[in-house]
Design a protein that fits this description.
This protein is an alpha+beta fold. It contains eleven helices and ten strands. The strands form three sheets. Strands 5-6-7-8-9 form a five-stranded antiparallel β-sheet, with no helix packed on it.
């Protein structure tokens, strides 16, 4: 009962923090500082979904009209035409042309749609063609510590701390205490309800560590994306693609000869059909399976963020027609109930990704006794025929 009460308190605090943070976060421009039009709302939502080179919590306009940002600068690491260049993201500034630029080691860099470009030597500003593509600037290799990277590192360290403490408790006592009581049933759930039935008793222990890591990593990052920190790590296609590639590598390397025989030379079918089935199976194993993993997670998390931020924007876009109180009340009620759904989706998407990963791994390590199965099929057919005659 005490744990339930603490959970409700935490949930209420998280909702309040998220809602208040989102209100302040929408103060992104204009004269008085608040968004007032559809275009500004769309720009903010797109900015929220994208990764960034700085950790900006909120922005405001002071009495002098100057735009102020509250956050933390992150290191920018680039490989330019002259080699490695490093500086802090706070060094970016607006030049006389209104472009975001920084000069470092005799080179000039600019930021266009959150991407960093290197200007040609001697160029004073970026020139654009009719399609708004830079004509005198080229992309650089960007190895920067972005906001998403910070989120991954923070959650990784947090998981390492939690599970290290849980492992130490098991060495001294049979029943964990504190936060370990919350982690233990989740660990047992992933082991007994996901890993064991999908991979099998013989091999499930070998892959349980990976499945636990993926489950908690995705779930905690999904929850972090609903906090005022503004993380949208699992809404980044590069992150979900990396997770899908990890699963691809594991089930590809772990696949036994039965698995590869079913892919490359399917038993029990006419020989002229086997090459066609082999091509279909290869596409499924190397493209369709990982693609389904990465797109499902990316699309669901991104869609949830877009809808939630759109509902919060109601208080700004409809305040003239509904009034400030009416628009705020409507926005709060809709976003509150959607946030509850998002909490469920955060767990559900972690579960689905882990379940499918376990299923793909289980298919790769499953063992088949073809001769025994074939003999059983023949015996069963003979018995059926004998029974019909009798």
């Amino acid at each position: 009962m005490k744990i339930v009460q603490q959970s409700f308190k935490f949930l209420a605090l998280a909702v309040l923090m998220f809602f208040s943070s989102s209100i302040s976060a929408f103060n992104v421009g204009g004269d008085g500082g608040q968004v007032s039009g559809k275009q500004e709302v769309e720009e903010y939502i797109v900015h929220h979904l994208k990764d960034s080179h700085d950790f900006n919590l909120f922005s405001y306009t002071d009495d002098s009209g100057e735009r102020k940002h509250f956050g933390v600068a992150l290191p920018v690491i680039l490989w330019s035409s002259e080699g490695l260049v490093t500086f802090m993201s706070s060094e970016f500034h607006h030049d006389d042309n209104g472009q975001v630029v920084v000069e470092k080691d005799g080179l000039k860099f600019t930021k266009i749609h959150s991407k960093i470009y290197e200007l040609e030597k001697g160029a004073a500003a970026v020139s654009f063609d009719a399609d708004h593509h830079a004509t005198n600037a080229s992309k650089v290799l960007d190895f920067s510590i972005t906001k998403s990277v910070v989120g991954i590192l923070l959650i990784g360290l947090l998981m390492l701390f939690w599970f290290s403490r849980l492992a130490k408790q098991y060495k001294k006592k049979q029943i964990p205490t504190g936060f370990g009581r919350i982690l233990e049933p989740l660990v047992l759930y992933v082991r007994d309800e996901i890993a064991r039935p999908n991979i099998g008793e013989k091999h499930y222990r070998k892959f349980t560590g990976y499945l636990l890591t993926v489950f908690f990593f995705i779930w905690i990052l999904n929850l972090a994306g609903l906090t005022p920190l503004g993380f949208n790590v699992t809404g980044q296609l590069a992150v979900t693609a990396c997770l899908a590639i990890f699963t691809l590598i594991i089930y590809t390397v772990s696949g036994n000869k039965d698995y590869w025989m079913h892919i490359l030379w399917m038993p029990g079918v006419p020989i002229f059909v086997k090459p066609i089935l082999a091509l279909i199976e290869l596409v499924g194993a190397f493209i369709i399976k990982p693609f389904s993993l990465l797109v499902r997670l990316f699309a669901n998390i991104s869609a949830g963020h877009i809808v939630l931020m759109s509902l919060i924007a109601i208080m700004f876009t409809l305040k003239e027609s509904l009034g400030v109180v009416g628009a705020t009340s409507l926005s709060f009620v809709l976003s509150f109930f959607l946030l509850l759904i998002e909490l469920l989706v955060a767990f559900l998407q972690a579960y689905i990704f882990t379940m499918l990963s376990a299923l793909f791994i289980g298919m790769a390590v499953a063992e088949h006794d073809h001769e025994h199965d074939h003999d059983n099929e023949i015996t069963s057919d003979v018995e059926d025929v004998r029974g019909d005659f009798i």
